[in-house]
Amino acid sequence: MPLAQAAETVLGVYVFHRHGDRTAKMTPPANLTDLGYFEVFTSGQWFRNRYIASDASAQVHGMSTDIVKQSQITVSAPSDTVLFNSAQGFLQGLYPPVGSTMGAETLRNGTKIESPLNGYQLIPIQALSTGTNSENAGWLQGASGCNKAASSSNQYFFSNEYNALFNSTTDFYKGLTPMINNTFPPSQISYKNAYTIFDLLNVASIHNASFPSSNLLTNETFFQLRTLADTHEWNLAYNESEPVRAMAGASLAAQVVQQLNTTITGMGKSKFAIQFGAYANFMSFFGLAQLTKSNPDFYGVPDYASSMTFELVTNASTATFPAADDISVRFLFHNGTTSNSSEPIAYPLFGQSDLVLPWTTFVDEMNKFAVGSEADWCKACGNTDGACAAYTTSNSTAGTSSSSSSGSSHHGGMSLGVAGVIGAMVTLGVILGLELLIVLVGGLRLVSKKRLANTGAAAPAVAETKA
């Protein structure tokens, strides 16, 4: 189906993109390869040709075409050598160098300065703490930081489904030993490490010219490896009965809504957002958004340089920025590097049939599972340390305050704090009264230290009271 209708205008775009080809997780640190750089650069060129260039097929309304306008674009990626570098490569295709004519300025004294690298455009990338080092983590939840999500994923390893696959594939994985025994000890060559084994062999099949793939890693074996890895990772990323397992997708959903809403409330000032992330975010979002109902391929791990795109569109006049009721959302996905010969396809979200949803419907459906604030994330994940400690302390204080209020009813409306002060004053009065009684009964008198020193009186004859 065509991606856009004739009278339609694109008001904003949110892209979530996977990194390009990289080295294997089991040989850290993982690095973006030249092939991976080429993949994300090529994808960036396609997004430019669709949304940004002067002759773009679905140009974002008011988008700067050649020289980037920083207020219009938002870019983010976790701080690591794969995802962050992928974002940089993508941006080089999205906004290429502008040449010596456009990339130059003349100073007041008449000196002409040309921008380095033929007018290379510098676009800031926001470094995210969430997802950092995810490409060096062998386990899907390894960089999520969400305690309950990790605990939920772990439950898969105790399920009947897991045990059945583990036992039925024992011989299959043992047959892979000659190819991977330099990396995996015999005890780890099993379905338990389905993805990292697939990942290692997949990288080798692409980059290792001396790899003995012809007789050992046959097409049938490789297909089985990938299918098992897909099943393994899907069950770690999503479980319908335990939504917290898909926290990565829930957080992504909130970010999408927030960014697109910024485009609407800001009357189109912010137009284009790109975020790079790991495949876990894709898979957990696929499950939450019920994309598997539209295509079973969504059960699989997305290829390198895959992308999800959310288009904010309208059929109303753009003489003034349209009202929210006149705005809709379209979802597109492409598995692998996007190019002119292989473009994204529109899919229906939330188990519905429509490819384009009204903005309000889209927001309502996303908010059913989105987790958008740090406080909500901490509560859902059960985290109490780091940034979440503030919310734990706040909850504790709120609980104490609540207990004090309820306890006040047992003191005739007097708070525990006030009752404590009054009790202390009464105790002090009793002590002073007893001291005075001792002085009177014993016939003693109070004498200052100064006077005592002047008279030279003996200390035992005087009872000294310190005030």
UniProtKB/TrEMBL annotation:
Q: What is the top-level taxon of the source organism? A: Eukaryota
Per its record, what are the GO molecular function terms?
phosphatase activity
Can you tell me where the transmembrane regions are? 414-441
Q: Which InterPro entries match?
A: His_Pase_clade-2, His_PPase_superfam, Histidine_acid_phosphatase
For this protein, the record's SUPFAM superfamilies field holds:
Phosphoglycerate mutase-like
Give the CDD domains listed for this entry. HP_HAP_like (cd07061)
One of its Pfam families is: His_Phos_2
- Which of UniProt's keywords are assigned here? Membrane, Transmembrane, Transmembrane helix
**Would you identify the family this protein belongs to, as annotated?**
Belongs to the histidine acid phosphatase family.
Q: What is this protein called?
A: Acid phosphatase
